[in-house]
Amino acid sequence: MQSLKIITPEINPLHQVRNWLNSIEIHNSIIAYVLCKIIPASCPFARKIKLFNHIFFVIPPLCKLNPLYDQLMGLRFKSLVCLANQ
Residue 56: phi, psi to the nearest 5? Predict the structure, then answer.
């Protein structure tokens, strides 16, 4: 007798959040302005540690490690486009 395999779809919450962020449409300039203020244009964690004009070490930008980085940058871009059109 053959065993029946139950195929269950893999539930990936990050995939669902990515799809949700990609599907957001920005039509309100106030919301676009707030999103541009909330989402930084560059990585806030990148730093150069200096002492007496000598760089001791550099903390690289770690934002690319964020699994939602591309979607957040896309949302910021949509907000900027909405503000430019207004």
Answer: -85, -45
Query: Domain boundaries in the chain?
Result: 15-85
Q: Is the pTM of this model over 0.90?
A: no
Residue 22 CB: number of other CB atoms within 10 A?
Answer: 12
- The residue among 76, 49, 45, 74 whose CA lies nearest residue 62 is 45
Cα of first residue to Cα of last residue in the chain, in angstroms, is 67
3-state secondary structure of 9: coil
**Residues 38, 33: Cα–Cα separation, whole Å:** 9
What is the number of other CB atoms lying within 10 angstroms of the CB of residue 76? 18
Separation between Cα atoms, residue 63 and residue 80, nearest integer Å: 20
pLDDT in tens, 44-72: 788 888 888 888 888 888 888 888 899 99
